[in-house]
Amino acid sequence: MYSMNIMPHSKTNCYSATGPLTDIGMPEMDGLELLQTLKANPETHSLPVIVLTGSEDMQSQEKALKLGADDFIVKPVTENDLLPRINRLLRKV
């Protein structure tokens, strides 16, 4: 069983979660900005975060990992690829 809370698209209202999945290409706040916000907040900085993107741009991957992403996945992603990554991160929580 996986526990993932929906993270709001507001720069001021971050809720705790077991581990968010975020896409780089989101409206209002992109995934990298959300990641930066989560890692800067003492209440959410230790959450494991998986970043998804449809681009194979290595600069985005490097930036996400430097900002504290725990994993980076290029879409399309399959269940067989995603679930083991989620399991690995949930074992750390």
Please outline the helices and strands.
Layout: E1 21-23, H1 31-40, E2 50-53, H2 58-67, E3 71-74, H3 79-92
Parallel strand pairs: 1-2, 2-3
Q: Considering DSSP H and I runs of 4 or more, what fraction of the residues is helical?
A: 25-40%
- CATH superfamily descriptor: Response regulator
Q: Runs with pLDDT <50, length 5+? A: 1-10, 12-17
If strands are numbered along the chain, what order do they take across the biggest sheet? 1-2-3
Number of helices: 3
| Global morphology | globular
Characterize the structure shown:
Helix 1 links the parallel strand 1 (21-23) and strand 2. This protein has helices spanning 31-40, 58-67, 79-92, and strands spanning 21-23, 50-53, 71-74. It has a single domain, classed as 3-Layer(aba) Sandwich (Rossmann fold), CATH 3.40.50. Residues 1-10 and 12-17 have low confidence and may be disordered. With 93 residues, it is an alpha/beta fold. The chain has 3 helices and 3 strands. Strands 1-2-3 form a 3-stranded parallel β-sheet, with helices on both faces. The radius of gyration is 12 Å and the shape is globular.
Keywords:
3 helices, Rossmann fold, disordered N terminus, 12% strand, alpha/beta, globular, three-stranded parallel beta sheet, 93 residues
Quick overview of this protein structure:
The chain has 93 residues and is an alpha/beta fold.
